[in-house]
Design a protein that fits this description.
Helix content: under 10%
Low-confidence stretches: 2-15
Strand order of the largest sheet: 12-11-10-17-16-15-14-13
CATH architecture of the largest domain: Sandwich
Mean pLDDT: 87
Radius of gyration: 21 Å
CATH superfamily of the largest domain: Immunoglobulins
Organism: Hymenobacter antarcticus
Order of helices and strands: EHEEEEEEEEEEEEEEEE
CATH class of the largest domain: Mainly Beta
Distance between the termini: 37 Å
Shape: globular
Strand content: over 45%
Number of helices: 1
Number of strands: 17
Largest sheet: 8 strands, antiparallel
Protein name: Gliding motility-associated C-terminal domain-containing protein
Length: 252
């Protein structure tokens, strides 16, 4: 595992009470927690499972701003880290590890006897990546529609395919996003994979394959639901784009 400091952070909106809300009415889980997010390209997706190796093996640990100081410990590694947020890389598959946070915060007046110190844990599973058979949660066939046209249903398929670099090549497999936009085979799609999510960019811009780019992720609590937030060319080959969101459910 390798650690490095991340300079800039944005915090989940639930970490800050809304104006006029009595903090004492919030459950403890809404105030005292931390997030584990997989880095895919330049985006972050909360996940309890990641692929090992390269950029796919990077996670960001993030505690809410209520904590004045933090101490992170990962698995059986005796080393501790005190930056927040904190980035960690897993170059190899290590199975399931426990991530522990000891956070120091102001004493909570809503909790009699509170000392202002929390010890929180989460489990993270790090699995090997195989280009031929990634078995990512984001893979599969998902039937749905865009939010702009909910009656115009279609199926998006995310799968691996062989792209031989030479006539005899049988090893160069890539992840493919098929039928986004609708009718596009996605053969020119650049895909950066993660376990729960992926980032993509369709390099073509013609009548069949509009220029599209964005990210796809299965729901953090229901992996049978896929959301794809992307931008699509208004007119194929032209620079103007419109925001789209596809929501689909896994089908056989």
């Amino acid at each position: 595992m390798r650690g490095s400091r991340l300079v800039r952070a944005t915090y989940p909106p639930q970490s800050l009470p809304k104006p006029g809300v009595d903090p004492c009415t919030l459950p403890a889980s809404a105030k005292y927690y931390f997030t584990v997010a997989n880095e895919v390209d330049t985006r972050y997706f909360s996940s309890d499972t990641i692929f090992a190796g390269g950029l796919m093996g990077t996670v960001r640990l993030l505690a809410p701003p209520v904590y004045r100081s933090v101490v992170w410990q990962v698995g059986s590694d005796p080393r501790t880290y005190t930056t927040n947020p904190f980035k960690l890389n897993f170059p190899t598959a290590v199975g399931t590890v426990r991530i522990r946070l000891v956070g120091t915060r102001p004493v909570d007046a809503c909790r009699p006897g509170d000392r202002g110190v929390d010890t929180l844990t989460q489990l993270l599973t790090v699995v090997p990546f195989n280009y031929r058979h990634p078995h990512a949660a984001v893979e599969g066939r998902f039937a749905g529609a865009t939010t702009a046209a909910p009656l115009d249903t279609f199926t998006v398929r995310i799968f691996t395919r062989l792209v031989p670099l030479t006539p005899s090549d049988t090893s160069n497999y890539v992840l493919n996003v098929y039928n986004l936009n609708k009718g596009c085979p996605g053969l020119d799609m650049n895909v950066i994979p993660g376990y729960r999510a992926l980032v993509f960019n369709q390099t073509r811009g013609d009548a069949q394959c509009h220029g599209v780019y964005g990210a796809a992720a299965v729901d953090s609590t229901d992996r049978n639901i896929l959301r794809i937030r992307y931008r699509e060319q208004v007119t194929p080959g032209q620079p103007a784009y419109v925001d789209r969101e596809f929501i689909g459910r896994r089908v056989r």
